[in-house]
Amino acid sequence: MSSSIQPVQNNNTVKTSIFYMNDFHAKLPNLERLYTASKVFDSFETSADKLKLSAGDDGIGEDPVLINAVSKILGMIGITKRQNGNHEFDVSPRSHAEIAKNAKYQELGAVNIHVKENSPLNGIMASSAIEEHNGNKYGIIGIGPSDMFSRLKDGKSKGDLHVDDFDNTVLNLQKEVDKLKSSGVNKVILLSHSGYVNDVKIAKQTRGIDVIIGGHSHDLIKDIKTGKNLFYNLDNEPVVITQAGKDGEYFGILNLEFDDKGLIKSVQNNVIPTSAFNRTIPAKYAVENIIGKPEHVGVINSVPPTPNNRLIENNPHGNFMVDAMRKELGVDVALLNSANIRGYFEKGNVDTRKVSEISPFKNKLVVAKISEKELVDAIKLGGRSFVHPDYKPGIVMVSGLQYTMNDKGELLKLSYVEDSGKVTPIDINNPDPNKLIRVAMDDFYATGGDGFHMLNKKHNAEAVYDFDKDKLACDYIKRLNAPIDIIDDKRIQIVKA
Fold this sequence. Notes:
Elements: E1 14-21, H1 28-43, E2 49-54, H2 64-77, E3 81-83, H3 93-101, E4 106-108, E5 113-115, E6 125-126, E7 128-133, E8 136-143, E9 161-163, H4 166-182, E10 188-192, H5 196-205, E11 211-214, E12 230-232, E13 238-242, E14 250-258, E15 264-273, H6 281-291, E16 296-302, H7 316-329, E17 333-337, E18 348-351, H8 352-358, E19 365-371, H9 372-382, E20 396-399, E21 401-406, E22 411-417, E23 423-425, E24 436-442, E25 463-465, H10 469-480, E26 484-485, E27 492-495
Parallel strand pairs: 1-2, 2-3, 3-4, 4-6, 8-10, 10-11, 11-13, 16-26, 17-24, 21-27
Antiparallel strand pairs: 1-14, 5-9, 7-8, 12-13, 14-15, 16-18, 17-20, 19-24, 19-25, 21-22, 22-23
């Protein structure tokens, strides 16, 4: 650990230990491991105040049964406050509200996420809360992502919410901090699902916040380093930022000492892999009691490595999923957002739960006709991910196509690929606006999500199915009825500019 914070010089200090999590994305096995880790944390003999907090995106997707299971485990872990991330709003407002009312934790986010009066979500979120441990008061505030709407598809929660832009978020956040300070709270923790870059701005542009536990940008922030996650606010007081990556691969324990004025005098940040802990019977039973036992669907014989960055690389695991969409629905081309793939296949037996973890959103699948020009425009839009700071929206994964793009996001070549192996080039500079192609995609793309307005075809689709790509992948595996090799066929090639 490196830090310029000075050691404690007196005995009037408060020791605090924060068990924190973010962006688990409904990875149930890792949540089960986190439950085991939380029991170890509980067993630590220490005089420190212990808090358990989440910066959001604990769940993902539209399946209320899955989200209910996530909520159940958060309660078992002992999370007391959770900032709502964007994926908390994947599920319908009514389901979200019902799950929140039965949760053991309090949801935050009302600082910058505003709910319509007639929404089931009205009153679910607080702007802040105070926790008292051993006579010490902690103010806990939450903010959601200002880019929320770019991560939600039309309908569902999107129509029930208004989210402040970043500048107004900072203004309202400071008011909430000031309110806590005026009530006598001098230790303030922000649960921010706003991303690392914004968290740094908040640390420097505000007063009174001591700790920012972040999420959304999936940064893995270890230790304490000045200029990386130790900054100084407008009053030249220290602010610590931390975040534990994505998909429940890590969690954190942040140990602090505060002086009698509530200023951080020492800090230690431990970021720990969940793989270091076993899945125990209580958590596994709780999950299966809600979502049921998984069904065996087949065997994976071999797998290639997973990409380092799934948003901007060819992904054979995702290619298998999009192939299942095309072949099971009998279309010419299938398209899938690379951000939709949240896991990978492993060698050995595969079951329905494992497939669902690879793509957990529970969207509806759509078959619609798009023009060749719209197809090219969509793939070019995905190329913008290379020049965006957080690689959003992610490149377009394809089946029935292959393409080459440079690492500046410029599309160089695109071709149709038939099952026979025949390759037909597409003129990417003059694509045919009159040539229509039957395409399978999910309703995130088919409602123009993430700026893909050229794919907004759900309103006049040929078919809308009440299931997602995980079902098709399971059906595809069963139909193949043989050990499967997940192959990297290089259908997307990224070359140096």
